[in-house]
Design brief:
Distance between the termini: 25 Å
CATH topology of the largest domain: Aspartate Aminotransferase, domain 2
Largest sheet: 7 strands, mixed
Strand order of the largest sheet: 4-10-9-8-7-5-6
Helix content: 40-55%
Structural class: alpha/beta
Strand content: 5-15%
Number of domains: 2
Bound molecules: pyridoxal-5'-phosphate
Shape: globular
Oligomer: single chain
Radius of gyration: 22 Å
CATH class of the largest domain: Alpha Beta
Length: about 425
């Protein structure tokens, strides 16, 4: 990570990497889909496997020179299946989105009906958004949450019986509560639909066994490997053994080209690491931190969607405050706290404005932030809410936030080259 050759050949670009490092280090990162990868994940993502082109599965490759990659892919299978207790895994998929493409390619025909979580209650784009190309090929129906902010399972069951979908998807990007996977799988079975969970947001919590797993219940489980899993920018798909062949064909040649062996290697490392006590402890603290922050924010009169959280994220409903989601995202960003605006259930505001923000605890927890620091962070969020346009307040909070984050470095200093450290805010200060 010294960027030695980049710095020599392209100082302009190297400068941007330095700036981004400084930004990440200085900022209280609370975008719920972000996490900080362990150093081996970064090393392996840039490893020699980048050079190798390969298609197909171990034993049935389309190119020569596959022997070592075969060993690595099989090792990934073994680790992933053990970690998640899964019958079958495909580790070739490029991302969470491409994991979903694999499953659709495996089991759906054009015109088939997919039932998923409402997009304005944060089902994912790939679950049926008209803005996503996949929606052109399928019919979509959507279930949602009730007034309490939790999935309405009765509505879900009624809709499934009436609509007779081919596939029922659960899993979302801003749902702070546990999902009753067993119940949804049962409903799918009753109506003869496939069941699928997209656990992109919670895969790390599932791997560390701090929340229940969808894998024993669902026909297919897809995931991104970023977010709480804290690994490479990539994906993974699990399924019941009886669907193994379909899934593998849906992945290649169904929806992908050559494998990204470099990120596969990084995932392989993470499948081992995620079974460790260290990872378990981080994930357990993530949930503790999220619940603690809910309680702190409630002291300042913030409304929390569904009244709390069971996982790594919480959604703040700002309608009782004098600020909308977009203003709050911008103000907090100026104050050194990174979140995203978020639609709340039955949100009267437009999707590009919104009435809420989503806050995730993964990245700050990885850096060592605990209850004591969250007391301050909650206070900062409250100060910004009360004066989102007061540049002095935003600047003051930013100074305090940067000061705090200095005590929680993302990576050991010796990992970076001398130049990178010199350019770093630890030397220069950002504000
Ligand atoms: C983030 C997300 C995805 C997409 O994952 P990428 O790795 O970004 O493609 C899919 N589904 C859900 C529910 C997500 O939150």
């Amino acid at each position: 990570m010294s960027l030695k050759e980049t710095r020599r050949t392209d100082p302009e670009l190297a400068g941007l990497i330095d700036e981004e490092l400084a930004r990440q280090e200085a900022c209280v990162e609370m975008i719920a889909s972000e996490s900080i990868v362990p150093l081996p994940v970064m090393e392996l993502s840039g490893s020699i496997f980048t050079n190798k082109t390969l298609e197909g599965l171990p034993g049935a490759r389309f190119q020569a020179g596959a022997g070592i990659a075969d060993k690595m892919e099989k090792l990934s299978w073994k680790r992933a299946k053990e970690l998640f207790g899964a019958e079958h895994v495909n580790v070739q998929t490029y991302s969470g989105s491409s994991a979903n493409h694999s499953v659709f390619a495996a089991i759906l025909e054009p015109g088939d009906k997919i039932m998923a979580m409402r997009l304005d209650q944060d089902g994912h784009l790939t679950h049926g958004s008209p803005a996503n190309w996949l929606s052109k090929f399928y019919n979509h129906v959507f279930y949602g949450v009730d007034d309490s902010g939790r999935i309405n399972y009765e509505e879900l069951e009624k809709m499934a019986k009436k609509e007779q979908p081919k596939l029922i998807i659960c899993g979302a990007s801003s749902y702070p509560r546990l999902i009753d996977y067993e119940k949804i799988a049962k409903i799918a079975e009753e109506v003869g639909a496939y069941s699928m969970c997209d656990m992109a947001h919670v895969a790390g919590l599932v791997a560390a066994k701090v929340i229940p797993s969808p894998i024993p219940y669902m026909d297919f489980v897809t995931s991104s490997t970023t977010k709480t899993f804290c690994s490479a920018r990539s994906g993974m798909v699990f399924c019941k053994e009886k669907y193994a062949k379909l899934l593998d064909k849906g992945t290649f040649p169904g929806s992908m080209g050559s494998i990204h062996l470099n990120t596969m290697a990084a995932k392989c490392w993470s499948f081992k690491y995620a079974a460790s006590e260290e990872f378990h402890n981080i994930m357990a603290q993530v949930v503790k931190n999220a619940q603690f922050l809910v309680a702190e924010l409630q002291k300042y009169g913030f409304e929390i969607v569904s009244g709390g959280t069971d996982n790594h994220l919480l959604v703040v409903d700002l309608r009782n405050k004098n600020v909308n989601g977009r203003q709050m995202q911008d103000a907090l960003d100026k104050a050194g706290i990174s979140v995203n605006k978020q639609v709340v259930p039955f949100d009267p505001a437009k999707p590009h404005i919104t009435s809420g923000i989503r806050i995730g605890l993964t990245a700050v927890t990885e850096r060592g932030i605990k209850e004591k620091e969250l007391v301050k962070i909650a206070e900062w969020i409250s100060r910004v809410t009360d004066a989102p346009e007061d540049e002095e307040v935003l600047k003051q909070v930013r100074r305090e936030a940067e000061e705090l984050m200095k005590n929680f470095p993302m990576y050991p200093a010796e990992y970076f080259g001398e130049q990178q450290l010199k350019n770093n805010y630890r030397e220069k200060g950002l504000s």
